[in-house]
Design brief:
The chain is of the alpha+beta class. The chain has helices at residues 8-23, 69-82, 92-95, 109-113, 134-144, 161-173, 180-192, 250-261, 274-280, 291-297, 364-380; strands at 29-36, 39-47, 62-64, 198-199, 209-210, 246-248, 265-266, 269-270, 314-315, 334-338, 342-347, 352-359. It has a 6-stranded antiparallel beta sheet with strand order 2-1-12-11-10-9, sandwiched between helices. A 4-stranded mixed beta sheet has the order 4-6-3-5. Helix 1 packs antiparallel against helix 11, helix 2 (69-82) packs across helix 7 and helix 5 packs across helix 6 (161-173). The protein is globular and about 60 Å long.
Length: 383
């Protein structure tokens, strides 16, 4: 038994499971950190950054965290609400006046946070466009994107639109008129001591960076202005992509997750209030399914299930079905994930924090099964 009150044998078993998966070619490697009550029980790097296993992962390997980037934009949005810059009930068209017409004035900030704004599920605004410059993405969203449903009719996961709009609202209402990059740095990364995390691939992190291997598991490319390849936006130093463009390490993401476990504060630095997190960790989508994952689940014959989304967090909720956070997690477990590779969650009932960043992008359903397996093993280790 470890000081963290977790079964060391079960956590050793998790390591063996990861090695078996890698040997089977399911993915290339993973860096994992598990703690209970803030006491670390597992901190390990297994496998490599590449399929040939020639680039061993380290505990401080740098990953593109994909959609976990959205969690940083969510924090900035919730923080702006706490500071009175706007409200959960503010209309996005009031914060971005050029985003009006076609029903867009009915969309409130909380609809964006809970993926209930009524926008179509789109992975790119204009086919083949460069995505690494934030001002260009804002202009494209304003020009092209219109709702197809009324707010709260459906839960349609937003791959990018919602977080482009929220980041722009944060930027426009910032009293210092800072860039998105500067706001993330000064309001999140600096207070939490996340020294190996950046918006875009900071030059000093490049040597440790795991270049994403999509393996045909993503519907589009991600082009950047430097033309570094079909997914080159993830290697751009100056990229600002508030939905997908942050790079980080497991040690840094652990600090981020621990801030949530400790009701919005870490190392004496408070980012969010307990009141905000209590509201954000409620289920705001009722029994409605997540349209994107319902569509993907049909490929496996999985029945539609409730989306369980709060204000910027995925929630475990109740019910027995496939879930990234496992089938053993308490209903209040919350966190965020990135396409086929990255996950963190906090189980407040068991006081457990889990972080995993992996190499080798997995197909969506296979990724759910992989992380469900990991999560259940971790939760079974809590004594």
């Amino acid at each position: 038994m470890s000081e963290a009150k977790m079964d060391a044998g079960r956590l050793e078993h998790l390591k063996a499971v990861v090695k078996t998966d890698i040997a089977a070619g399911l993915y290339h490697g993973a860096v994992i950190k598990v703690a209970r009550g803030g006491t670390v029980a597992l901190d390990v790097a297994i496998g490599a950054a590449d399929a040939a296993q020639t680039q061993p992962l380290q505990r401080n390997s740098v990953f593109s965290i994909f959609s976990i980037t959205k969690a940083f934009t969510n924090v900035l949005t919730l923080r702006a609400i706490e500071l009175g810059h706007f409200a959960l009930t503010s209309r996005i068209s009031d914060l971005i006046p050029d985003f009006r017409g076609s029903g867009r004035e009915n969309i409130q900030v909380w609809h964006l946070l809970s993926h209930q704004a009524g926008f179509p599920i789109i992975f790119e605004v204009k086919p083949g466009m460069y995505i690494d410059r934030f001002d260009e993405m804002v202009a494209a969203v304003i020009e092209v994107v219109k709702p197809v449903d009324a707010p709260c009719e459906k839960v349609s996961y937003s791959p990018l639109v919602n977080h482009v709009l929220m980041a722009e609202a944060v930027r426009r209402t910032d009293p210092k008129r800072r860039s998105y990059r500067a706001i993330v740095q000064e309001e999140i990364l600096d207070p939490l001591g996340m020294k190996d995390t950046s918006v875009g691939l900071r030059a000093d992190l490049k040597a440790r960076k795991v270049v994403p291997d999509f393996r045909g598991n993503y519907p589009i490319g991600h082009r950047g202005h430097s033309n570094l390849g079909p997914n080159g936006a993830f290697e751009e130093e100056h990229a600002e992509m508030p939905w997908v463009g942050i790079v980080s390490t497991v040690p840094d993401m652990f600090r981020f997750a621990e801030m949530f476990r400790q009701d919005g504060a870490f190392d004496g630095k408070r980012l969010l209030s307990p009141a905000t997190l209590a509201q954000a960790c409620r289920n705001w989508t009722g029994d409605k399914p997540n349209e994107l994952y319902t569509q993907r689940g049909r490929e496996r014959g999985w029945a539609p299930v409730p989306a369980y989304i709060g204000l910027g967090f995925s929630l475990r909720g109740t019910g027995l079905f496939h879930h990234l956070f496992g089938t053993l997690a308490s209903p209040g477990t919350f966190g965020n994930y990135g396409a086929g590779t990255t996950l963190y969650w906090v189980d407040p009932e068991r006081d457990v924090t889990f972080v995993c960043l992996s190499a080798g992008v997995m197909e969506s359903n296979a990724n759910v099964e992989r992380f469900q397996k990991f999560s259940d093993i971790v939760l079974s280790a809590a004594t």
